[in-house]
Amino acid sequence: MEVTNAIGRRKAAVARVYLTPGKGNIIINDRDFKQYFPNTLLQYIVEQPLHLLEVAQKYDIKVNLDGGGVKGQAEALRLGITRALIKIDETCKPKLKLAGFTTRDPREVERKKPGRPKARKRFQFSKR
Question: For residue 102, what are the CA distances in angstroms to 8, 9, 68, 69, 114?
Fold first, then answer.
């Protein structure tokens, strides 16, 4: 039984993905992924690379997810699954790249500046 691992990141979320040949089970932090992501849109995001390559029932996926919000976690998991699938079969990379799953979204939260309520927001200006 060969285990393929990969890491996906998005904002503050980190997904460590372990792919093994199996029946299509996805376990996130020792919970079923439909229980972890009750929202069907997030479930769809997670399964996108598997459905694109039609390998949803071929692999068991175990994931350690940490940090960030639910959307960031789902997108980090999608990137991790994509990278693991590319490690297994290099020929599927062009298809995944064309769908935009191989790109790591580099956007991060801008830091808060001193003397301001948020990163760019300012307190109300008073002339007198």
Answer: 10, 11, 20, 21, 36
Q: What is the pLDDT averaged over residues 7-26?
A: 94
**In what helix (H) or strand (E) does residue 23 lie, and over which residues does it extend?**
none
Domain with 41 in it: what CATH number?
3.30.230.10
Q: What is the mean pLDDT of residues 35-53?
A: 94
The one-letter code for the residue type at 67 is: G
Stated pTM of the model: 0.90
d(CA 7, CA 125): 46
Cα–Cα nearest to 53, from 31, 84, 18: 84
* Contact between residue 73 and residue 15 where contact means Cβ atoms under 8 Å apart: yes
Residue 54 lies in a domain: yes
- Rounded to a whole number of angstroms, the CA Rg of the chain reads 18
